[in-house]
Amino acid sequence: MTSQQLVICYMQRTFQTQEYVSSVMQMNPDVLAIAARMDELRKAGQLLGPLHGISFTVKDNIATKDSMETTADSWALLGSVVPRDAFVVARLRAAGAVLFGKATMSEWADMRSTGYSEGYSPRGGQARSPYNLTLNPFGSSSGSAIGVAANAIAFSLGTETDGSVISPAHRNAVVGFKPTVGLASRDGVIPECEHQDTVGTFGRIVRDAVYALYAIYGVDPRDNYTDAQRGKTPLSGGQLIDLIKTAGARVVNYTVITDYDNIVEKRGWDWDWRAKELNRPYESEYTVVKVDFYNNIKKYLSELQKTDIRSLEDIIRFNYENDGTEGGHPYGQNYTDAGSGRTSYHGHPAFRTGQNGFLMSNATQGSQDETYWRALEFMQRTTRGGIDAALTHDGTRLSGLLVPPSVGQTYQVAAQAGYPMVTITAGVDPVSGMPFGLGIMQTAFAEEELVRWASAIEDLQLTSGTELKRTRPKWYRYLEKPLPIRRES
């Protein structure tokens, strides 16, 4: 099969599934020409690597200097021109991979609002899991994971600040690899929080996600966090745990992350709970994220051409002025026009709280005051110390921490620490039909250890003769009725 033929296969698959799952924001109009060039190189005996001629997508907050838009799925940045390819995109192009298009995402990577529909954006609509069109697909890298799950693309890039790779990966039965902050450059990525942002990979199997990861890492002078990787880079549910034990691995039950009760909210994911419930903003992840976003987004916008959007204030104003599509106001509240006296409802149902996330970030004005630095120190000290301590049990250094990726408090610890985590498929909920995964956590720049164990566990799944394999989504005919609607228990 040629690269062009592979592209056509993915085009046909996208046309089949897009109406239902909405995984692709924009298809690259030059994709067939790029594939043709890769075919010519292959004929000439010039292979650029294992990804030569393989199609991929990137989340719409990753810049591509081509015929496509980079907008974080917001109308606000439509028509803007990026200065260059994101570092990770340039690396994949150099490796011979074929950029198929942009994947849909939760608008602005979930930063804009605290009450929103995951996987929704004004430009891309509602992304849906192929396993259950009625349930939350998780995000914010929703389209990246969904496209791989629907077999509409070979692999995809997403981004994560707190759960945005791990969550949609396990929710859509694909492998998601979130590397250490600083392994993959964030240059050209619409930012959220420089201390936690990272670019991750999605694949149907570990090998696919790892090939992509190995292609994108590297030191980049435009992202000083990548200097930390020098000398540390990679060299090139219960039944599942029982299977691992049977194969000869020692599974410790259980090791403890120190300070866990002080790091996360036991009732569910909440990155501001210590500020809201304990009145301790100096111990809140959100304290850091709000300030970083205000500063980081201004820096990113300063390099764009052909746009009037230069700051968070500009984005907020745009959302108010385009309330019907962008939902600048909280949904359902009525507003009276001072001039005409007319009262009307404002907002968008996908954004129940409007853009309150943006407003809270804007209120900080990017001030890195004492509270900010205390919060950053608390967050990194407790999470990094907790994971590192848990990796030693009775004097023995462990190869990884097996964790449930479906629990927000799990990936939240890895996200705050800036440490790597991978999730692989483990099964499907018999009630909802939604997949769930098995996560593995490690310390900074221990990606090679994660690759080794994730690959070994996946090999066990495929060769064990059990049902512990990746379950494919069930597709129904176009006019078939009634479609089953299953809800989570």
From TrEMBL:
Entries under Pfam families matching the protein: Amidase (PF01425)
Domain Amidase, first and last residues per copy: 9-228
Protein name per Swiss-Prot or TrEMBL: Amidase signature domain-containing protein
